[in-house]
UniProtKB/TrEMBL annotation:
<keyword id="KW-0804">Transcription</keyword>
<keyword id="KW-0238">DNA-binding</keyword>
<feature type="domain" description="N-acetyltransferase">
    <location>
        <begin position="165"/>
        <end position="317"/>
    </location>
</feature>
<dbReference type="Pfam" id="PF00583">
    <property type="entry name" value="Acetyltransf_1"/>
</dbReference>
<dbReference type="InterPro" id="IPR023187">
    <property type="entry name" value="Tscrpt_reg_MarR-type_CS"/>
</dbReference>
<dbReference type="InterPro" id="IPR016181">
    <property type="entry name" value="Acyl_CoA_acyltransferase"/>
</dbReference>
<dbReference type="InterPro" id="IPR036388">
    <property type="entry name" value="WH-like_DNA-bd_sf"/>
</dbReference>
<dbReference type="InterPro" id="IPR000835">
    <property type="entry name" value="HTH_MarR-typ"/>
</dbReference>
<dbReference type="Pfam" id="PF12802">
    <property type="entry name" value="MarR_2"/>
</dbReference>
<dbReference type="InterPro" id="IPR011991">
    <property type="entry name" value="ArsR-like_HTH"/>
</dbReference>
<protein>
    <recommendedName>
        <fullName>MarR family transcriptional regulator</fullName>
    </recommendedName>
</protein>
<keyword id="KW-0805">Transcription regulation</keyword>
<feature type="domain" description="HTH marR-type">
    <location>
        <begin position="8"/>
        <end position="142"/>
    </location>
</feature>
<dbReference type="InterPro" id="IPR000182">
    <property type="entry name" value="GNAT_dom"/>
</dbReference>
<dbReference type="InterPro" id="IPR039422">
    <property type="entry name" value="MarR/SlyA-like"/>
</dbReference>
<dbReference type="GO" id="GO:0006950">
    <property type="term" value="P:response to stress"/>
</dbReference>
<dbReference type="GO" id="GO:0016747">
    <property type="term" value="F:acyltransferase activity, transferring groups other than amino-acyl groups"/>
</dbReference>
């Protein structure tokens, strides 16, 4: 299933899916057993059954729904003849919700169905699993009351948007991000070739051991980009495996990583730095050109990839000379 792969981002969607599933199941039971109620009506009807007449605000607070949602549901229950609105004898400006005679009669016949629902859920989910779920729900409800989710999310957003990008070297704990970030753009634009699979699956063996380096761009602890410097032969390096999380584009991660790889190339005293790419990746190619890579007339003779139709060599002096010539012209 797709939603579980999104973890926290799909929490609301997964809970809604489960909620819809249980609502539909109970509605089917109600219909089969001849009950004239709907599952979504249950919290309001049960609360009025147990507490008698009360206000919309009291019901909303008790069942954790908005005043508007409860008011709209109350209108449906009034139309169904199950609930009535009565003027408050102590405060004529407000109305009270209460069960009608029909509502009490209908609810009084639901005992066997409600028992069947409880027992059926236990059998379907398992007693221990259900207990775990109910405990987790209670803990979640308490947590969001104590620490509002919106406040927490906006605080994290503020931290992310004011944090500085940092470049860090490879460590084993970051290995999964090397695969994730590269697989993301490869699967979107091309396909993962066998050489990709080997390198991404075991970067220590195929990148680091032969003398290469791997860098990661990190923003407030979130890994959002990566690139590799491959040692092709003594003094010759390839810039490769540049990948930036597509939801963090425009934040400069690619340029920061590129600068780090070029700096490492110079630190090592390299004599040649090249890269392979594809002509469809216009934005990346412009970034490489601006950094001093020069497009070559043909693909690299020892090309590693089926997708490669662009070969560029790092020649910053060539770029500076071209700019000077253009200025004189």
């Amino acid at each position: 299933m797709y939603l579980p792969t999104l973890a926290q981002l799909a929490l609301g969607s997964r809970l809604k899916s489960l909620s819809d599933h249980f609502y539909a199941a109970v509605d089917e039971v109600y219909r089969t057993c001849g009950a004239g109620v709907e599952s979504r009506w249950f919290p309001v009807l049960r609360f009025l059954w147990e507490n008698g007449e009360t206000t919309v605000s009291d019901v909303a607070q008790a069942i954790g729904q908005t005043h508007s949602a409860v008011s709209q549901l109350a209108d449906k229950l009034v139309d169904a003849g199950l609930v009535c609105r009565n003027k408050d004898a102590q405060d004529g400006r407000r109305s009270l919700l209460g069960l009608t005679d029909k509502g009490r009669a209908d609810l009084s016949a639901l005992g066997p169905i409600w028992v069947a629902v409880r027992r059926g859920i236990v059998k379907s989910l398992g007693e221990q699993e259900l207990e775990t779920l109910l405990t987790a729900l209670s803990a979640t409800e308490a947590a969001v009351q104590e620490r509002p989710v919106v406040d927490a999310m906006l605080a994290e957003y503020a931290a992310l948007t004011t944090a500085a990008l940092e470049v860090v070297p490879y460590e084993a704990a970051l290995k999964e991000h090397f695969y994730r970030l590269n697989a993301q753009w490869l699967e979107r634009h091309f396909r993962i070739e066998e050489i990709d699979r080997q390198m991404l699956g075991d970067p220590e063996r195929h990148v680091l051991a032969p003398g290469g380096a791997i860098f990661f761009a990190r923003l407030a602890g979130e890994v959002i980009g990566t690139c590799a410097l491959l040692c092709e032969s003594p003094g010759v390096y390839e810039l490769s495996k540049m990948g930036v999380d597509e939801t963090f584009r425009g934040m400069g991660a690619g340029r920061v990583l590129l600068a780090a790889a070029i700096a490492e190339f110079h630190r090592r005293g390299g004599r040649e730095l090249f890269l392979e790419s594809n002509s469809r990746l216009k934005t990346a190619l412009r970034m490489y050109q601006q950094a001093g890579f020069v497009l070559q007339p043909s693909v690299w003779a020892g090309s590693h990839y089926e997708r490669a139709d662009v070969y560029m060599i790092y020649q910053p002096d060539h770029r500076q000379a071209a700019k000077a010539g253009a200025a004189r012209g």
